[in-house]
Amino acid sequence: SGENTSINETEIVRDVAQQRVKISGRVVDQDGFPMPGVAVAIKERRGVGTVTDVEGKYLIECAANETLVYSFVGYVTKEEKATGANNLTVVLQEDTTMLEEVQVVAFGVQKKESVISSISAVRPEELRVPSSNITTAFAGRMAGVIAYQRSGEPGLDNAEFFIRGITTFSAGGKRDPLILIDGIEMSSTDLARLNVDDIASFSVMKDANAAALYGARGANGVILVSTKEGKADQISINIRAELSSSSNTNLVELADPITYMRLHNEAVRTRDAMIELPYTSSKIRETELGTNPLMYPSVDWYNYMLKDRTFNQRVNMNITGGGKAVQYYLAANYQHDTGIIKESKENLVNNNININRIQVRSNVTIKLTPATTAIIRAYGSFDDQTGPRQGRIEFSPGQYKTVSGGVYTFHMARNATPVRFLPYYPKDEANMFTNHVLFGMGDELGSFT
User: Three-state DSSP class for 447?
Assistant: First the structure.
């Protein structure tokens, strides 16, 4: 009858669905290389499956209507129906969203959940700050890292940083952590100049367990940085341009010239009532009236020598691409940093701090064989820096210290007397044909308080 015919057809379909078949195939990566150790599981039956061999091949027995699941750490999981998976080459793609789940350790990578040592991983995006110096971004972004910055002068603005405190207080003891960029030991200056766009991973090893492979060299902690590598994909070009401004956080407020002279007289009088006062009443009066600025100068050295703010520019471009055998990452970076010293139109040269820096990087990955990969890395940094000359300041009686041009200029602007001389003078009859600027000068006592 018609009813019996329907029952028989249902049983036939059920028998076909439950028919056991042997499925064989091969798993490769996006470059076509075999992937050993890929888990091939049956979705409908938990705990049933196999793994690929060294050639990426597998053999599994399952029902014709079941689904095979292909999974590997760091790759996107893929599913295929058993009926269409026989003799099929399955291609697994890298999972970019899983990169944070992999932790860089001494000579390789581990899954985060298997890392038991004290390691902090910082996303490169968190280190992107409006500065040409990456070390200025350390403070407050890394647990266990103490960072502080002594100077904001371009070229000398490296932040000093320690991992879990200072292990030695001796003058000659090494306090800096071990810094490895792509496995090569670098200085803190090399790390400071590193471009954030070139960083693929940034890890800080903080305890003995994490730095054990480095021995005594890792006693102060280890900073591991790896730069980006090429990908087998279409050419990708990224360009980023930045314009940032910087200024003094705060300046010590100085007394005006009139108050300066009166307080100077008071200081001298309280120490010796019989000594002649540095400034007469007529000088103070004439300076206050401003009738003859050449004879009675009044100079705000902060306002004359320092700007409120300055602007810096940065441009970065990188190119990524490649095929199955060769991948490349090429990057170029230009930085222009300036100081806050005013550029005087009377000078024939730019007296401000001016830094032009060009950096280039090339990372080329070559797959020689399925099990052998060669990486060729090249990096160069070219600097052109100008600015005021260094100077010596007295930080204690008879003790002098050589400081940078920016620090020396700031020191001179803060300590120079505001009422002894002008920055420069107009030409008089005796100097009508003088080509150089007639700068004002003061003796040692006249220049400093």
Answer: helix
Give Cα 213 to chain centroid, integer Å: 26
Rounded-to-10 torsion of CA 100, 106, 108, 112: -30
What the block records as the tokens of 245 is 């401004």
Give the separation between CA 281 and CA 268, rounded to whole angstroms.
15
Long-range contacts of 20-23 (CB under 8 A, 24+ apart): 20/61, 20/62, 20/63, 21/61, 21/62, 21/63, 21/64, 21/82, 21/86, 22/59, 22/60, 22/61, 23/59, 23/60, 23/61, 23/62, 23/68, 23/82, 23/85, 23/86
Residue appearing with tokens 């490649």? 322
CB atoms inside a 10 Å sphere around CB 213: 12
The string of pLDDT tens digits covering residues 147-159 is 888 888 898 888 8
User: What are 370-399's pLDDT values in tens digits?
Assistant: 778 899 999 999 999 998 888 888 878 888
Structure tokens belonging to residue 136: 């200025």
User: Residue 400 gets which letter from DSSP?
Assistant: E
Cα 184 to the chain's mean position, in Å?
A: 17
Closest CA to 92 of 140, 47, 39: 39
DSSP 218: G
Of the candidates 379, 384, 447, 444, the one whose C-alpha atom is nearest the C-alpha of residue 417 is: 447
Q: For residue 67, what is the enclosing H or E element?
A: strand 67-71
The structure tokens listed for 9 are: 């057809």
**CA 161, 164, 167, 169 torsion: positive or negative?**
positive
Helix (H) or strand (E) holding 191: helix 188-192
For residue 420, which of 318, 293, 306, 313 has the smallest C-alpha distance?
A: 293
Model pTM score? 0.69
